[in-house]
Structures are given as C-alpha cells and as structure tokens.
Predict the 3D structure of the following.
Amino acid sequence: MHKRLVASLLVIVVSLIVIACAPVAPAAPSTGTQPTAASAEQPTVAAATQPAAATAPQVTIWIIEGPEGNAMVKAAEEYNKKFNANVVVQLQGRNTIQEKQRTAMASGADQPDMHFVISPDLPSLAAAGFLDPWDPYVKDHPELNWDKDFFPTARSESMFDGKIYMLPTDVTGEVLIYNSELIPNPPKDWDEYLETAKKFTKSINPDSPTDYGTAFGGRPSIASESWSIHLWSQGGDILDDNGKVVVDSPVAIESFKWWVDMMRNQKVVPPDVTSWAYPEKNVALQEVRIPMASHFQAGLPVLNDCAQSPKVCGKMKLSKNPAGPAGSITFVQTLGLLLNSKSKNKDAAADFAFWVVSPEGSKIFTEAGGTSPRISVFGDPAIAASRGAWWKDYEEALQSGHGTIRDPHASELLEALDAQISKAYAGQISPEDALKQAAADMRKILGQ
Amino acid sequence: MPTRRLGTFLDRHARIVLLLPALVLLLALFGYPIIYTIDLSVRNVNLFNIQRGDAPFVGLENYIQVMSDPAIWNAFYVTVLFFGVSLVIQLVLGMALALVFNRAFFGKSVLMTVCLIPMMVTPIAVGMFWRLMLNAQWGIVNYLLSLVGIPPQPWLGDTTLVQIAVIGVYVWLDVSFVFLVFLGGLTALPIEPFEAASMDGASALQSFRYITLPLMTPVILVIVITRIIDAFRAFDVIYALTEGGPGDSSRVIALELYQIAFRRLQYSDAAALAILMSVLMIVLTALLLRAIRYRAVAKA
C-alpha cells in the first residue's frame, strides 16, 4: 500500500512537472520592457525596448554587445516610440555570437527575425539558404539611396550573388592610430613606417620613450588581418576577382616576408604579439608602450577619453595606413542586419531594418555610438563635431577600403590561412612555406 | 476493478515505475544527442546542407580523414603533454597541501578557503586574467620576475614558454580540486596502521611511503580519471589565453574540435573526432576503474 502510494504520488508529481515545462502558445506582444523567452535562457542576452502596442508583431534582433549593440538598442527605442512598434534587441557576447547565430540558423529556428553580423560571415549564410535578400523591399524604400549614399566597400560587402543580403548599419576600419605628441607626422609609406617603428623601439634606440615601435593583432583567429593591409597595398590579394587563390603569388610572398621580418628579425613589435588582439593594442597605446598601431577606429574615442586614458588623451590621431605601390588601403568590415529566411515577421522586420539604415535612423544610430556607412552621415556637421577632428580622416580612409574574402567558404579559407600565418609568426615555418601551404589548403577547400 | 489492477501493477513494478521518469529524461538528454552525433559522423554534413538534411552517407570516411590529419595528432600530443605534466605537478602539490592541512594549525580554515579560490573562478575568466598577467609588457608575472633580476619573458609569444605558461595555469586552476580530494581521502584513512608503524619506530617518510601512499592509491586513480576526462574537455582557458597559439603550440584537442566545427564548418568531421575522443576516454576510464577494482579484490 505504501509503495503504491509513493509511486502514485511520483507519477502525479512528474506529470505536473511535464505539464509545467510543456511549451505554451506565444503570448501577446508585451507592453513593457522584458526579456523574451530566448533572452531568459541566455545569460548574455539583454532586452531593451520601449512599451509597444499590444497588436504590433514582435521583431527580434541578435546583436553583439558593445557600441553597436547599444546604438541598436537606442535606435529601437526611438523606433518603437515613433511607430508604436515592438522591436526587441537582444545583446549577445562578442565571443560567442557567431556560433549561436550559425547554430540557430542551421536548426531552422524562426527566431530571431534578424541577425546582426559582420560582413565576412554573409556569403556562407546566404549560400546555405538561411537568409532572404532585402531586394524585394528596396523599391518601397527610395530613401535607402543605395548607390549614392553608402561607401562602395560597404555596398559590396553587403551583397552576395548580385543581391543585397545585409542592410549595413555600421562600418569599422583598421587604420593607423598614432600618438601625435611622439609622431607629429605619421608615416606615409611602409619604409617610413619601419623607420619610425625602429626609432621607437628601445632595443634599437635606448632613448625611445616607448618599448616597441608598433604592434598588431596576431592571435591565431585574426592572424591574417593586419598583414592583409600590407598585402593589398603591395597589389597582392588572397583570392583574385575570379575567386582563384593567389595568396602564394610572388607579391604576396614578398609582402609576408617583409611583415614577418619586421616582427621576428627587426623586433619592432612586442614578442608576444601573437597573443594580441584589440584589448592589448588599446592598452599598449594607452600606456605609451607603443606610439602607433594598425588599429580599429573604435579604439580612438577610448584613447582620447581622459578618464580612461589619462596618459594619451587628446594626443591620439588617426591616419590612412602606410601606402605601397597599390596605394593606401583600409581594412574594412561592414556590419548590418540580415533577414532570417524562416522569420514569421519579415515585413515588420524589414520596416525596422530599412528605417534604421535610412538617413534618419542612421543618424540616430551614429549619435548613439554606432558608425553608419552612409556618406551623408559622415558629412553631418553635428555628428562630425561630436566625434572630433579624426572623423574627417576616417571618412577619407574609408574611401580606400578593402574587405576580406567574399566566398561562401570564407570562414574555412581564413582558418586555413590563419593557421599557417600563425605558424610563421611563431617561427615554426618560413613565411614562404606558410603561404604555399595555406594556398594548397585553400585550393583543396575550393576544389581548384 | 481497473484501479485495483493498476495498484497491483504498481506494487509489482514499483522499481521500474520509479526509475522510468529518470530513464526517459536520460534517454532524451543523453541518448538522442549521442545517436545524432553518431549519425552526423557517418554522413557528410556541413553548413550548406545541414538544413536540407540530404547529406550523403559516407561510412567511416570522416573517421579516416580525422585520423590522418596531422593537426589532430599535434593537438593530441599537446593535450597529453599539457595534462600529463600538469597532472604530475598537481598530484605532488595536492598531496603536499593535503598533508599540511590534515593537521590542526592556527588559521587553517582561512588558508583553506584561499587555496580553494581557483575552483570558484569561471575558467574563461581564468584564461582572460592570466592573459593579462602573462603579458610580456605589463603583466604582473614579468614584473615579479624583474624584482629578482629576471628579464621580461614573452610567455605567450614563444612556442616553448607558452607550454610552460599553460601548464602553470592549469596547475593553479586544478590543484585545489586535487588537494580537496586528497584531503578527503586522508581524513578517511584508518588510524591503526599509523599507530602501529609509530610504535615500530617508522619515520614520517616511511609511514608516508609504506602506508599513506598505498592506501591512497584508489584516490589517486580517481583523480587521474577525472583529470583525463578534463584534459579532453579543456577548451575555455586555452581559448581565452592563447587560442592555441603561437602557431599550433598550445592547440589542444578540444580547441581543434571547435575549429573544425565552427570555423571550418565541417560538422561531420567534428562529430567523428568527438566520437573518437569519447571512445578513448571510455577505454582509459574503464582501464583505470578496472585497476581500482583489481586492487580492491587483491586487498580483500
């Protein structure tokens, strides 16, 4: 009897738990600020919206935390207020968002309605069929002014197979950031760059106020990024216009030899630069350990903020990267909104996406800390005044922008390239062998 | 009548009925992912065909591909090196700490809490702050070394130094766990053999060598098992600290698996490697458990 009672109770308890955990029908859109079901499951998620109309369909966006995410939250608040809409921005950790997005899309999930991604990810996601192009909506939005009001690199980086898959809200560029007190005139070409770097390397010049002359992000996952700037300025490339692997061309090999020589033989960069990324470069510039670096412009406001960077604030400037035979090239990454092909709120999502890249939305987004790739936003006097003198130089640098690989296998190709480049940085193989091996691996991936 | 029949059934099969909910949950949470991973490993699934679900069956091709990849073998070697060396150091340090804390002294509780702090820190945070502390320019490790006249070392920029650094970080991170398990084992040891040895004039070292160590062998084997499993799962600390660099000098097997799955987007290759790692872990664990059981039987 006792056993029977226990078993019966257990069955009842389990049934109640199962019922309690069972999926429920989606509730009517919230009228207040609260996390969605997805955000409740994810510790890195935050939701931020203004009260929305009970009838408005909920549109969700996954975006990286940081300036871009904060700007999107602000833009969504304005949009919700103005149009009585229900756009929910969910912030995701910078290091994990890519995996989460790919996994969500691969699973065929209808949430989120839009993904905020960085341009190199676009071709693979589009080729996999996870996205819908924005083209069908373009005719209804003449304010987009696609051909005239966006930087050419932002446009090309947002397209795949002749279609617009990304509405670009943000642009980031790797440019030369330097301490103008130490370097009044930034180097114009790579020879000057090396000479300046030597002058500020203590082992070469004991009077140098800095330990090393320059630095770059050499962590394995970004090993090829900074070198690409030198490569492009020399006229080389990773893939040519037809998608053929040319990273082992004589120009590329010479360029990479020069780059590795600067690091390993000239020793003008810190020896552990192979573990460096954005944070280390920022700290090195803040602490006057280096006078200049190829760095993302996003670091500049921090470096010129006296509360955060008392040693260098007001002295940090931005210039175009040193030039080679093919000119000065800025490594540009465009970021923007992609439409989930499984979304159930495509029209509502499109309404917000086209608004946030409109002249009005772009301005709000940029005022809130983002960097819209709209040329008119760069020319806006109020925004230019709020950003400072470097804003104009940045606009100029973006005119000669270059994106990275545009291929559905970009992630795989870059992994193959970065792996070999990282080995050359570590001295495990020669620069020439590294590029030859990388090219062989890349050709295998592309079936060339 | 049906109520009585149900009651009789529940009486007869109470154990099964009680276990059923847990079994169903286990099957759903563990069984399905394992079966799915095995299925993934014998097909050719990647980012481009995963949603279509029409990936072709390729048999053991992915396993052969993984086994013939030199990068995998390098990652395997790096994993064994890191965790083999750090395990030995952890066992020695953990035992030393446990012996110290196995007796009463002033401030024992406070010191013990301090020793256990590494266990409480999230591994990804461990990787992040050691990355800053090991920085060649402004890291505190080089600063401390400079106080005794040692010049700055590129801990994360040299293929040999990075291995020392990673082993050091893992020792710091895991020694508290080893110490805690050892301490638990020591407190459970019978006191009689030690009293007898003391009466026979055995020194402290002899007592340790001939009584403590043999009695603690099962505990050591349990630690070895858990550390082997941890070795193949280790990802977060190294990801934050070095991302496997410089070159491939700190690229452990779990990091390689991550690269295959999330950068190369070759889900089937990653699944095959995951299955192989699981099989290896199961075999090693089974062998060690067998050793524990063999010792117990021999002792009996």
User: Anything to note?
Assistant: Chain B is about 75% helix and 0% strand. The first helix of chain B runs from residue 2 to 12.
